[in-house]
Amino acid sequence: MKKFEILEKINLAPDICYFEVYAPLVAKSSKPGQFLIVRVDEKGERIPLTLMDYDANKGSVSIVVQGIGLSTKKINLLEKGDTFLDFAGPLGRPSELLEISENELKTKKILFIAGGIGAAPIYPQVKYLYNKGILADIILGAKSSNFIILKDKLNKISNNLYITTDDGSEGKKGFVTDMLKELIEVENKTYDIIITIGPMIMMRNVAEYTKIKGIKTIASLNTIMIDGTGMCGGCRVTVGGKTKFTCVDGPEFDAHLIDFAEALKRLSSYKTIEGEKLHKCKIGLDQ
Amino acid sequence: MLNNMPIRKEKVPIKEQPADVRIKNFDEVCLGYTLDEAILEAERCIQCKNPGCVLQCPVNINIPAFIKKIRENNLPDAARIIFNDSTLPAICGRVCPQETQCEGNCIIGKKNEPVAIGKLERLVGDWVLENGYPDKFEIIENNIKVAIIGSGPAGLSCAYDLRKMGYDVTIFEALHKPGGVLEYGIPEFRLPKEKVVRKEIQNILKLGVKIETNIIVGKTITIDQLLNEEGYMAVFIGTGAGLPKFMGIPGENFNGVFSANEYLTRANLMQAFDENADTPIYKAKRAVVVGGGNVAMDAARTALRLGAEVHLVYRRSEKELPARLEEVHHAKEEGVIFHMLTNPVEILGDDNGWVKAIKCIKMQLGEPDESGRRSPIPIPGSEFTMECDAVLMALGTSPNPLIASTTPDLKVNNRNCIVINEETGETSKPGVFAGGDAVTGSATVILAMGAGRKAAKGIHNYIQKKLGKD
């Protein structure tokens, strides 16, 4: 097997691909909640991606990539047998769930709220709990039915799986927060810990609601970064009034302490430049 | 060997790209001496019996001796002399602060311009890159594995020396390209990557040193795993000082405020100055750089080349600027506008969260502080604002805590610097050595190189002793 060879590729949704990659050292050290930095070719950006799964025996690590910018679109053109140029990790701190003892975890009611490809990074955490005999609830949201990913995989290892779509093409019509409110206010469910991963706006909305309800909430941030080891500071975020680096202090933080307004603005730093680059290079990318 | 010809008062002028041309490209500014020019400059050295230059060189290169060889047009011998003490002359000749080291203590410099030692070293270094080291040396394999963490100047020199002694050396690099600060930090216009850095690394690889990129020691694999599971008998930590500092003033997280590290890494490592690279870089209209070191000059001159009007603010006076004299000189020539005795107090942003101005206060110099430099004191009521659309923070860097945090028995001080035995490079953990910026905090390439070489000796002694005992 070649270094960073793609062992499996599955098209999960339009422009969203699953890759299982041969990276034995990374697989051996990976923990739920951590992320990787990948690069597709010599001109490519260093792209941070939260890992979806890992198998130390097989020496493989799985990721899900959504083609948004130039580099991620290039990644999604890779096929089984191709290799990533660079595949480094695992980076960041493992999920906070790993710090809680098994006995204590068993007393907790845990809910995951994932939006879009956020379904991928919650997978290893849900699986971690499942392997300990703990079944969490999940709310999975997307804009429409064909963007709901990993439904069956997640369904097998969780208790209740609730689906929402913006257009109502599957599950409940509306946002994940609508479902969350319904679960808590109508169905009178209680949760001790909520873990939310997905678009920044969605995580902010979840956090705003759970703060009022006083439910501990963890969000995993996907910020702009280059090295992923604390060198550039591009990923800085204000948490509880202090500047933190997402790459080394995160990527998970207490969602009630994150300054989402600032984080949202910082995410847009390179929007115009990236748009131009994508526009210029699009020829050849669309198959 | 003094002849009776009067010594030229000034250095033989060195060719440079003119300022108005070079601000439009990223090519090297200084073009270096030709051999004839170098010989002429070498003749200015009076071959002191007790040379001050050697004393002030952090690795004590026998400077008069190699200069004499240049004068005799014997570059192979000049190379042999330099390589006794240095492994990276093409790099150090370009980036050493010569004015505070060798050239600062050159006797000719007392009345006239000192001998251009750095430029002469560079010539010899470039000759070696071009022609290879003059002697073939045989490596007698001892099949003992040593791991080097980090492929910057400290790691490269440590690897080079250990390999020559026959060790099976593997360098682990966290980024995708080897070179450390030489690759991500120092810009192309000061230190060419293809022509110098990669060639230097290639030469080390040719000896049989292995490099594994994309391995973040402390994350991908730990030091304990390297020692206990992977069969390495010793480990050298040369991970540098890569963590950027911020000021902690309001507005620092506005868009358009970057650490110089981020800005330079985008431009250098990711080649973002090239339109064809996928990594974006913000092309400011009016950038303010905060700081007075080499990194500040590098960031300022990079922003300038990307089309910005660049202002540099520094809280002390020009005399205290820690940057190399040549960089300050070049930055000024290129049009960087210097604001000395000026310190930012707040960054102001617009409704979209982008920086729109920086508020600064004027400073005056008071009593010397613990660094020996006069400490800057704010002048009350002297605040003023400068409009800008980017702020580049170049306030220095500190060592990355990544390794220390995953190696519990590795002692670090309160600044996250690894504590070592200065003579041997040994850390508190048996079999683990360290050197360079990871130990000292951000310093120079030559000091890192010297530390890497010292640790190579320390590692060799440690292993020999251990084998003898076992």
Write the SSE topology:
The complex is a heterodimer of chains A (287) and B (470).
Chain A: E1 6-13, E2 16-22, H1 24-29, E3 35-39, E4 47-50, E5 53-55, E6 60-66, H2 70-75, E7 86-91, H3 102-106, E8 110-115, H4 119-130, E9 137-142, H5 151-156, E10 161-165, E11 172-173, H6 176-186, E12 193-197, H7 200-213, E13 216-220, E14 236-239, E15 242-245, H8 246-249, E16 252-254, H9 260-267, H10 271-281
Helix pairs in contact in A: 6-7
Chain B: H1 19-22, H2 35-42, H3 52-56, H4 63-71, H5 75-83, H6 89-95, H7 117-131, E1 145-149, H8 153-164, E2 168-172, H9 181-184, H10 193-206, E3 210-212, H11 223-228, E4 234-237, E5 243-244, E6 257-259, H12 260-267, E7 286-290, H13 294-305, E8 309-313, H14 325-334, E9 337-339, E10 342-349, E11 355-368, E12 374-378, E13 384-387, E14 390-393, E15 397-398, H15 402-406, E16 432-434, H16 437-440, H17 445-469
Parallel strand pairs in B: 1-2, 1-4, 2-3, 4-16, 6-14, 7-8, 7-14, 8-9
Antiparallel strand pairs in B: 5-15, 10-11, 11-12, 11-13
Helix pairs in contact in B: 2-4, 2-7, 4-5, 4-7, 5-7, 6-7, 8-17, 12-13, 13-14
Structure overview:
- The complex is a heterodimer of chains A (287) and B (470).
- Chain A is an alpha/beta fold and 287 residues long.
- Chain A has helices at 24-29, 70-75, 102-106, 119-130, 151-156, 176-186, 200-213, 246-249, 260-267, 271-281, and strands at 6-13, 16-22, 35-39, 47-50, 53-55, 60-66, 86-91, 110-115, 137-142, 161-165, 172-173, 193-197, 216-220, 236-239, 242-245, 252-254.
- Chain A folds into two domains: 6-91, Elongation Factor Tu (Ef-tu), domain 3, CATH 2.40.30; 96-269, Rossmann fold (3-Layer(aba) Sandwich), CATH 3.40.50.80.
- Chain A is built from ten helices and 16 strands.
- A seven-stranded mixed β-sheet of chain A has the order 11-10-9-8-12-13-16, with helices on both faces.
- In chain A, helix 6 (176-186) runs parallel beside helix 7 (200-213).
- The two termini of chain A are 28 Å apart.
- With 470 residues, chain B is α/β, with parallel strands linked by helices.
- Chain B is globular and about 70 Å long.
- Chains A and B meet through helix 1, helix 2, strand 7, strand 14 and helix 9 of A and strand 5 and helix 12 of B.
